[in-house]
């Protein structure tokens, strides 16, 4: 018979049974003269429910090429083909086909042995009786005998069998259809489990939406935990697969592959984004040296923990905050393979359940440790989960749960010859649907500001991912049922494409977002999100094609030689070398210069430090002048002249307590001038959770004042329930002024918080007033600091103070 290429002849008639257009994914194996990769790599042959065993090919003599260059030498092969049965619930026998050749020009004897005995004679007078099934470009140098289409008449009038025809007896076993789920890979080509790329894409998109629109998808940060579970599952599955095939785990090769996968893309991201930030806004470079060290050594999470950074503080974001998760994963890549070597050396492959208890125990310990760390900071006013969230020790449970699942499953990342009962396939497929649904729901309902999230909400999301992953194995995903239908949607072209490039998209989106927001602070998220997402995706796609894949395939040194190899006869080659050379020549020196000239403090921090120092000096001078006047009065026996009385106000400063954040701190001197005797307590990065403790503290120190001003919208959202709690804690006679907020577009919590303040004013008409700082400063952004939140000069500071005075006088 003929295959799709008319020049390829298949005397064994295997192409109709085994060949598939989509089997090899375009990969040609030059060491496979029979092109068996193409023959045996296929997806589905029919719509029947028949299951197959795994193909195996083993030489009967020392391994030599089946065809030499002149294609006259044959080597016997033993090819194990699967038999199939109507029932998909039992293991099926394997038919063994042995092809023996003593002389190339003699007949071949092909014997089939299993529970059905068949003998088949193959007639051939040519050296090409067993022709490899290849495309035309691989067979142009061979002469093929055209396939006969009918019997031929001999001189005596009888019919003879044409050459190259297989004569078989009709099988005595009825109803043996071709399997619907054949093993589509051999050890020579990679096996890609279903659904994994789609899951990567879903996790990546969740993180992007969380960063672009934090109010719309509060739990999108859990996409990182999806990556953790998936990484633990994949890495452990690969290690188990390598040990099963080779009897050992090559740690050097494993770590080399990880470095090739992660380090080049990270390095490119650094040398391109740092010079841009340097030229745009130097505030972005504060702490850049420690950040670069953490990124390149994959220890970013610990570097930031030691520096006391707040991962959830979005008022002054760092450019490379998202790399903390890569640090956790890379540390896992270093430590876990060593543990796996010990596990594999101690336990046999048949004791997978015992081996799985090790990562499961580590997961429980990690979750318990996160819970303990959160418990020490459970008070809302001091709640900062950065240490518990970013620590490798306290956030490794997702990785360990994925590893435990990989040890429990049967060949998680390999084609499977095992057949499961239909009820098991249906049950596990249904659990996969539940898992993906639970994961999507967790992105919406679990918030990063809830103590329940650490670790319980995060654990729930991780368990949902496990339910999904348990169905990605070949014996479930490849069988007709709910899982197969699910993976048709998950493995759609769009999600698969995004999933394959998810590492680059995740890596690039955050620094690009920070840079864009610094350049256009008032741009709406609906403007910044599509621009940043498109740019990050485009860079990630180019990096994936032209840098990441070549380096993974050929190595860093070989890829560099290929890129920079001079070839003045080819314009394309010159451009290929010119682009990376230009990047290195410009971006690398600029990166070094930016790091050496990076400021130690942002412009806002410098402004606040100057104001604080000026306030302290003023207090010291006033105290010194008061002491001097008192001394002169004692010496002369006369009292000093009375100072000019301040302008009379309906509200006296002695009756006012102001609790605020860094915006209040910046305007403190002018507030004190306008309201003599007022107590102003402002602090950087203060949130609404600090309001009640400070009110109680000052009540004990100076007594309850008649007016309390609260300005805490800049750093966190405010809910009506929190306002109710403050109003309940105060005496009914105390009146409050709530200052609304103004900030860059990335502070997405400010507009809804301003609306909540208006609701509170309507709910407490006699006790609440709103100081409308937002409307007063709108249109005067040039008077603000670079972050578009803090008053930058005396004019804007006076405007802020006057808003408070006006609201107090409005009672």
Structure in words:
The chain is an alpha/beta fold. Helix content is 50%, strand content 7%. It is built from 28 helices and 13 strands. The strands form three sheets. Strands 1-2-3-4-5-8 form a six-stranded antiparallel β-sheet, with no helix packed on it. Strands 10-9-11-12-13 form a five-stranded parallel β-sheet, with helices on both faces. Strand 6 and strand 7 form a beta hairpin. Helix 3 runs antiparallel to helix 4, helix 5 runs antiparallel to helix 18 and helix 5 packs across helix 20. The protein is globular. The N and C termini lie far apart (96 Å).
Features:
811 residues; alpha/beta; six-stranded antiparallel β-sheet; five-stranded parallel β-sheet; 28 helices; globular
Estimate the helix proportion, in percent: 40-55%
Strand order, largest beta sheet: 1-2-3-4-5-8
Q: Distance between the terminal alpha carbons, to the nearest Å?
A: 96 Å
Mean pLDDT: 76
Low-confidence parts: 1-159, 161-180, 182-187, 629-648
**What general outline do the C-alpha atoms trace?**
globular
Number of strands: 13
Q: Note the beta-strand portion.
A: 5-15%
- The DSSP helix count reads 28
| SS content category | alpha/beta
| Most strands sheet | 6 strands, antiparallel
Task: Tell me the radius of gyration.
Answer: 36 Å
């Amino acid at each position: 018979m003929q295959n799709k290429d008319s020049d390829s002849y298949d005397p064994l008639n295997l192409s109709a049974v085994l060949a598939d257009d989509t089997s090899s994914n375009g990969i040609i194996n030059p060491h496979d003269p029979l092109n068996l990769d193409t023959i045996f790599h296929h997806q589905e042959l029919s719509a029947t429910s028949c299951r197959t065993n795994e193909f195996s090919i083993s030489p009967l003599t020392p391994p030599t090429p089946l065809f030499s260059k002149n294609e006259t030498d044959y080597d016997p092969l033993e090819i194990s083909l699967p038999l199939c049965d109507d029932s998909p619930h039992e293991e099926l026998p394997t038919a063994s086909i042995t092809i023996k050749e003593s002389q190339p020009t003699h007949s071949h004897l092909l014997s089939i042995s299993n529970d059905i005995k068949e003998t088949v004679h193959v007639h051939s007078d040519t050296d090409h009786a067993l022709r490899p099934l290849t495309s035309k470009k691989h067979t142009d140098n061979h002469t093929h005998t055209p396939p006969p289409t009918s019997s031929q008449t001999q001189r005596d009038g009888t019919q003879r069998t044409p050459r190259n025809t297989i004569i078989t007896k009709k099988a005595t076993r009825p109803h043996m259809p071709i399997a619907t789920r054949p093993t589509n890979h051999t050890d020579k080509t990679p096996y890609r489990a279903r659904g994994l790329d789609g899951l990567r894409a879903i996790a990546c998109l969740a993180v992007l939406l969380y960063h672009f629109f934090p109010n719309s998808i509060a739990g999108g940060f859990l996409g990182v935990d999806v990556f953790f579970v998936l990484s633990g599952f994949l890495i452990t599955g690969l290690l188990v697969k390598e040990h099963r095939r080779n009897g050992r785990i090559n740690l050097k090769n494993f770590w080399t592959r990880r470095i090739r996968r992660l380090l080049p893309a990270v390095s490119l991201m650094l040398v391109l984004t740092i010079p841009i930030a340097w030229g745009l806004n130097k505030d972005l470079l504060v702490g850049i040296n420690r950040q670069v060290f953490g990124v390149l050594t994959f220890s970013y999470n610990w570097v930031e923990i030691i520096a006391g950074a707040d991962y959830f503080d979005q008022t002054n974001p760092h450019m490379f905050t998202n790399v903390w998760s890569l640090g956790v994963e890379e540390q896992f890549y270093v430590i876990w393979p060593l543990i796996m070597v010990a596990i594999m050396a101690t336990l046999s492959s048949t004791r997978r359940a015992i081996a799985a208890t090790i990562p499961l125990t580590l997961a429980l310990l990690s979750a318990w440790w996160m819970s303990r760390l959160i418990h020490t900071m459970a008070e809302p006013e001091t709640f900062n989960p950065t240490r518990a969230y970013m620590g490798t020790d306290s956030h490794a449970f997702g990785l360990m749960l994925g590893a435990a699942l990989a040890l429990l499953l049967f060949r998680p990342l390999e084609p499977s010859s095992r057949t499961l009962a239909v009820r098991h396939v249906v049950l596990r497929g249904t659990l996969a649907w539940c898992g993906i649904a639970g994961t999507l729901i967790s992105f919406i309902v679990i918030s990063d500001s809830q103590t329940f999230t650490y670790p319980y909400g995060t654990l729930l999301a991780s368990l949902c991912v496990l339910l999904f992953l348990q169905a990605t194995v070949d014996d479930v995903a490849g069988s007709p049922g709910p899982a197969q239908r699910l993976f048709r949607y998950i493995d759609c072209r769009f999600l698969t494409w995004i999933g394959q490039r998810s590492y680059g998209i995740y890596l690039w989106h955050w620094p690009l977002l920070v840079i864009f927001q610094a350049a256009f602070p008032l741009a709406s998220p609906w403007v910044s999100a599509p621009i940043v997402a498109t740019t990050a995706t485009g860079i990630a796609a180019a990096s994936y094609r032209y840098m990441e894949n070549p380096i993974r395939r050929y190595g860093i040194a070989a890829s560099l030689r290929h890129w920079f190899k001079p070839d003045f006869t080819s314009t394309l080659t010159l451009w290929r070398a010119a682009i990376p050379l230009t990047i290195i020549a410009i971006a690398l020196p600029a990166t070094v210069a930016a790091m050496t000239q990076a400021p130690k403090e942002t412009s806002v921090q410098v402004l606040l430090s100057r104001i604080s120092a000026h306030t302290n000096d003023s207090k010291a001078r006033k105290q010194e002048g008061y002491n001097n006047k008192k001394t002169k009065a004692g010496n002369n026996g006369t009292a000093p002249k009375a100072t000019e009385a301040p302008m009379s106000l309906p509200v006296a400063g002695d009756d006012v307590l102001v609790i605020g954040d860094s915006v209040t701190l910046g305007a403190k001197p002018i507030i004190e001038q306008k309201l003599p005797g007022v107590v102003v307590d402002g602090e950087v990065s203060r949130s609404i959770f600090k309001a009640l403790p400070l009110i109680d503290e000052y009540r004990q120190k100076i007594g309850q004042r008649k007016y309390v001003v609260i300005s805490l919208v800049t750093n966190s959202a405010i809910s009506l329930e929190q306002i109710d709690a403050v109003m309940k804690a105060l005496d009914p006679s105390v009146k409050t002024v709530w200052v609304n907020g103004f900030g860059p577009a990335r502070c997405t919590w400010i507009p809804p918080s301003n609306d909540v303040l208006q609701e509170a004013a309507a709910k407490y008409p006699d006790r609440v007033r709103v100081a409308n700082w937002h409307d007063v400063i709108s249109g005067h952004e040039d008077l603000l600091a670079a972050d578009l939140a803090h008053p930058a000069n005396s004019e804007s500071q006076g405007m802020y103070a006057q808003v408070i005075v006006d609201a107090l006088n409005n009672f």
